[in-house]
């Protein structure tokens, strides 16, 4: 079985999502389907079709989480330190051309959330940064061509 690296916080979020889906969402959608069925003709019942679609999504996500969670390998980021980029690092980079500064945390593929500054360890940016140190200049593949970034800080917290 393939193992997926993940932080303890990421695993806790997935386990909580599974708990909510099974304990709250699934029973609620079953009630919604039963209520929509009570309205009669199912062929033209939009509520019924929407509820069935939602049920399909919920069951799919439950199956996905039940496959992922047992295959998670929790990485204890607290034991890492130094200025070398490893899994769980919060890395600050500066684009050498535009001088834009950004900070990302390198996490497992199932907990990545770009809006919150978390990138997957399997992303091109994370792959380019892994093993590098503060002060290193790194070529990062990008859709518009490779970009050079400099690592200005690495933290584990």
From TrEMBL:
<keyword id="KW-0648">Protein biosynthesis</keyword>
<dbReference type="InterPro" id="IPR006359">
    <property type="entry name" value="Tscrpt_elong_fac_GreA"/>
</dbReference>
<keyword id="KW-0251">Elongation factor</keyword>
<comment type="similarity">
    <text>Belongs to the GreA/GreB family.</text>
</comment>
<protein>
    <recommendedName>
        <fullName>Transcription elongation factor GreA</fullName>
    </recommendedName>
</protein>
<keyword id="KW-0238">DNA-binding</keyword>
<dbReference type="GO" id="GO:0070063">
    <property type="term" value="F:RNA polymerase binding"/>
</dbReference>
<dbReference type="InterPro" id="IPR001437">
    <property type="entry name" value="Tscrpt_elong_fac_GreA/B_C"/>
</dbReference>
<dbReference type="GO" id="GO:0006354">
    <property type="term" value="P:DNA-templated transcription elongation"/>
</dbReference>
<feature type="domain" description="Transcription elongation factor GreA/GreB N-terminal">
    <location>
        <begin position="5"/>
        <end position="74"/>
    </location>
</feature>
<dbReference type="InterPro" id="IPR036953">
    <property type="entry name" value="GreA/GreB_C_sf"/>
</dbReference>
<dbReference type="InterPro" id="IPR023459">
    <property type="entry name" value="Tscrpt_elong_fac_GreA/B_fam"/>
</dbReference>
<dbReference type="GO" id="GO:0003677">
    <property type="term" value="F:DNA binding"/>
</dbReference>
<dbReference type="Pfam" id="PF03449">
    <property type="entry name" value="GreA_GreB_N"/>
</dbReference>
<dbReference type="InterPro" id="IPR022691">
    <property type="entry name" value="Tscrpt_elong_fac_GreA/B_N"/>
</dbReference>
<keyword id="KW-0805">Transcription regulation</keyword>
<comment type="function">
    <text>Necessary for efficient RNA polymerase transcription elongation past template-encoded arresting sites. The arresting sites in DNA have the property of trapping a certain fraction of elongating RNA polymerases that pass through, resulting in locked ternary complexes. Cleavage of the nascent transcript by cleavage factors such as GreA or GreB allows the resumption of elongation from the new 3'terminus. GreA releases sequences of 2 to 3 nucleotides.</text>
</comment>
<dbReference type="InterPro" id="IPR028624">
    <property type="entry name" value="Tscrpt_elong_fac_GreA/B"/>
</dbReference>
<dbReference type="GO" id="GO:0032784">
    <property type="term" value="P:regulation of DNA-templated transcription elongation"/>
</dbReference>
<feature type="domain" description="Transcription elongation factor GreA/GreB C-terminal">
    <location>
        <begin position="83"/>
        <end position="156"/>
    </location>
</feature>
<dbReference type="GO" id="GO:0003746">
    <property type="term" value="F:translation elongation factor activity"/>
</dbReference>
<dbReference type="InterPro" id="IPR036805">
    <property type="entry name" value="Tscrpt_elong_fac_GreA/B_N_sf"/>
</dbReference>
<dbReference type="InterPro" id="IPR018151">
    <property type="entry name" value="TF_GreA/GreB_CS"/>
</dbReference>
<keyword id="KW-0804">Transcription</keyword>
<dbReference type="Pfam" id="PF01272">
    <property type="entry name" value="GreA_GreB"/>
</dbReference>
């Amino acid at each position: 079985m393939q193992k997926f690296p993940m932080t303890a916080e990421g695993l806790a979020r997935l386990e909580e999502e599974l708990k909510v889906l099974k304990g709250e969402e699934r029973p609620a959608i079953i009630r919604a389907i039963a209520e929509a069925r009570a309205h009669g003709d199912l062929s033209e019942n939009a509520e019924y079709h929407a509820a069935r679609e939602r049920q399909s999504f919920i069951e799919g996500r439950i199956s996905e989480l039940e496959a992922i969670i047992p295959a998670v390998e929790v990485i204890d980021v607290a034991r890492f330190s130094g200025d070398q980029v490893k899994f769980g690092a919060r890395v600050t980079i500066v684009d050498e051309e535009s001088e834009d500064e950004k900070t990302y945390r390198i996490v497992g593929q199932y907990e990545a959330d770009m809006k919150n500054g978390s990138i997957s360890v399997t992303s091109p940016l994370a792959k380019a940064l892994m093993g590098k140190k503060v002060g290193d200049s790194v070529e990062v593949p990008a859709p518009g061509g490779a970009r050079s970034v400099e690592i200005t800080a690495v933290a584990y917290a």
